[in-house]
DNA sequence: ACAAAAGTGTTCGAGATACACCCATGC
DNA sequence: GCATGGGTGTATCTCGAACACTTTTGT
């Protein structure tokens, strides 16, 4: 990975990827940020992002860049928008393609930028409530990604990706409430979720809580795929 | 506008825009194609597209390029996806940003590539049924745009953009049927459309038909904007 | 026994679907 | 008078919204 500065002086046009990775932990929605270790915006917080190389597709670039800057491996991301304002990068014309993902935080906490680059000093899960002002136009990029998942979750049950493998309905509901930023009715929420028929009820309960333990559920990928197919085909 | 060939030999990375412009005429859904006049894919049909210049935003580039290649002026387009496979262009790495629009065909038939470029020999409205195999990966780009509008129309009443200013409900229904590729029930369709409350019934009827003339309607932009706002705000 | 969260049903209104006949007009 | 599309209403179902109390468990 060449340092950005060595490329900028001669570039005509460069493209980059920026990743918006959502995680959910301790009842909070978080986003993965890096602390920049190079100019411009040295010491600022930014979305993990870097230049696309000559011989890699955008999707591959996204995966590689996220890994190198944060240590997260094999994350599948979706492209959501491309940002191309002329002056979005102070050193030249950089068009950036935005990717997002929602991932399970448990067991993914060991973040460590790969030592191949000193571009990021560290990577940190940051609660949305504590979001600092970000480098470049990353505030705008983040906002667009957040709008996207908020929109998507309201017509597609995608929130499981953020939860541990086994979860309670109340945890799932809290997650929805955080993303949609409103209270939901418990009975209606449960009815609706169970109606989707994509949850498997386990013979197991929550442990270590000082109140009535809730049933645990698992997300059923097979049934989910079926539902998703149905939603993609128009008309019934 | 420099010719593509003079740029390619030395480029590291280049971005372009490709435009998917939908029109509706004589009961058929059409897309605007150009006939290429330069290599590669000389003489092939392609989506109108060209390189983004150094000092213009993506949105501006899209508008300019469409105008230069087809003569269509001031068309507002939405970005829908960015295509970055390594080998999508035979002469080097070109990442392209897809834009789409739906426009009124009546009065927009005078297509003429601007003489500043000999890149396109001509621009032609092509019925979807007659789509030839397109240059580059434009088949894929087209398909993605079409999926996008098909999806969008089923939750947002956007089809007016394709119709003449005054239209009958039957024309509107036909348009929906063509895009969704299925028959709709006349009574239910009318009920639903009128319920949106974004159509203004005119004191005017169809002329020159050899059967009972239908009422003409106009699309009410003010009310539409209101509806759109409502749909964008989550939760009620 | 008390605190805390789990779990559970019914009613209402809105909107989607299915379905068939008479009406106006031009030829 | 006939062919062609214009125009209309009702019954049913599904889904989302509103709404409150009992049960279980750990301390």
UniProtKB/TrEMBL annotation, chains A, B:
Domain named Nudix hydrolase: residues: 14-150
Pfam families registered for this protein in UniProt: NUDIX, WHD_NrtR
PROSITE patterns registered for this protein in UniProt: NUDIX
Protein known as: 8-oxo-dGTP diphosphatase
Source species taxonomy: Bacteria, Pseudomonadati, Bacteroidota, Sphingobacteriia, Sphingobacteriales
